[in-house]
Structure formats: structure tokens, C-alpha cells
User: What shape does this take?
Amino acid sequence: MDSEVKMLPCERCGELILYDGIKEFGADTYCEFCGSESPHTLLGNPATPFFFLFLGTVVFALVNPFGMKEAQIFFMAFGQFCLLLWFKILRPIHIALLKADNPPGCAIFFYGCFSWGALGLGILSLFLLTASGR
Assistant: This one.
């Protein structure tokens, strides 16, 4: 198992507290700062938007209300995934690395290239979605 201590912000007050799961699934965590009995919820979990994106894409692909081709559905799903990945994961990490007191020079360069590459792939994929419709 992972022995690393995970700290996540409380959803009510924003202070960093120990994360041991979600109250609905048996976690015993409470916030020491504001006293909230459920400081972490399922909607606050970082994986929730990806789950809804995946579920929505599967339903959209099965129903296919606009009669889209398979390539268009792929470009749509991949573009949305890349943009969500960039907004929810890569951009906040990149901003935190840039604001750090002693940022690692080479690592921040390569991480920045990866971050901006994911953004570019998402935009390019959504552009190809519109271009492949003809």
C-alpha cells in the first residue's frame, strides 16, 4: 500500500487536512479548523469530472443524436479529455511550480512543454472535429 500521507483542502474552509477517504465510504476524518464532519465529498474528488466526462461520452456515442462519424466522436472525446486534463491537473501543477521559491529549471521546462502540449492536442483535436465533418 501507499504509505504517503495525503493532505487535501477542506471543502468548507479550504485548510489542508489529512485525507483518508470520503465519509460516505467509511472515512473518519473531520476538519480541525471549521469542525466539518464531512470535509471531503464525492463531488469534491478530483476524479469525479473525468467519470462524468467518460460516462457522457459513452452515452453520446451510443445515442449519436447528430449522426457523427466514428472519427468525429473520437476527436470530440479526446479533445475534451485533453482540455479537462489540462484544466484540472496540469495547469494547477504548472502554476504551483512557477510560483515556487526555488523552481527546478530543467524539470519545469519539460513539464511546461508537456502541459502546453496537452492543451495544444485538445484544441487541435476539437479543430479536427469540425474539419472532419465535411
Residues 70-99 form the longest helix (30 residues). The chain has three helices and two strands. The CA atoms of residues 17 and 84 lie 26 Å apart. The mean pLDDT is 81.
